[in-house]
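#lab-general

N.A. 3:47 PM
ok so I finally got the sequence cleaned up, no stray characters, all 379 residues accounted for. can someone with queue access submit it? mine expired

B.Y. 3:52 PM
send it over

N.A. 3:53 PM
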Amino acid sequence: MTSLRARSGDESEIPAVRITGPSGLVAAVPYLVGFAPVESVVVVLLTPPPRSVALSLRMDLDLGADTGVDAAVEVLGDALDRAIVFGTVLDRAHLVVFSEAAGGLPAEELIESLVVMLAERGVDVGEVISTTGDRRWCYTQQHPHPCPAEGHPLERSEMLAAQASLVRAGVGYLTSRSELVESIALDPDRALPAEALTRAKGERDARVRSGDGVGWRRLQEDTLWTAFDSAYDDAALASRGAAWAVALADSRVREPVLFRVLVGLGPSRRQELLAGARMWLSALVARVPGSDGGPVAATLAAVAWQQGDGAFARIAAVRALEAQPGNTLGELILAACSSGMPPREWIRVLASFGLHELRFPRPSDEAIELEPNQWSASA
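B.Y. 4:20 PM
back already:
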């Protein structure tokens, strides 16, 4: 197995990660999906050489049992079709089943159907394995010589090499999907009081009525950017959090601050600001109740996507849409993460506007959206 980039993004910015052999693949999957899968099948989709990970898709094994194999395969097929429509070139796939019953090669019908579905889309299939503990087994349709009943031991050297490479690249994961969800769930004990949000909206409205809406928006943009460029300060978040939550609902604040984080910076500086933004926004989203939390979660999803953390970005986007159904940015990020769209394209589109255009009213004051033909043909 060749060098793989663990997360999609600008290839000049994300270090290449060496993943070798099936054991290295098993070790890498939790980093690719953001948490340790259980009773799941994970499909890792790669671009043509030099290989990079375009998309990692996870499905509960019992989905096939609950909805039928055809319906389960259709779910993953639709995700691949979206990726192809948006210009992502998919060349190879690896399938890894994580299950306590790995030795019995669980969900064989589902796995066989997935292999057929991938072949129909011109995607070559590499490893098809199941794993639990420190062992792995191979599905016979890809390996004419079946594995022994006891399977093969996972190669510790391959696993350690992959893990070390991923950690050096700044990639991590949590122990479960629920832990990932919980990390940005509302904390009732620390939630901003409703009156604080009402007061922040009142201050915004008063500034707009007085003809100084531009000044209010610029103040929020500047203080957000300064926070992203600073060490986390709980007292500062408590003081300004309500105003920031209100401000992030306005595209004329949200898009300029993202522009300043993403556009015209070197790779190291951009990643530094993205890390700061994620830290502050993760803390803020856990404090903002109700629909007011939607724009904060959507902005967090955009930041995580730009970091190359698709698993976290998807969860933050879902959080945004649960809080505020129809949130445009949340829908955009969810679609992008589900389709392997390259994050660098959004930077290109933001840069094409310029700060002045983003800060002032546009014919339609909505979040910038991307159509399929705006994406390049390579990931």
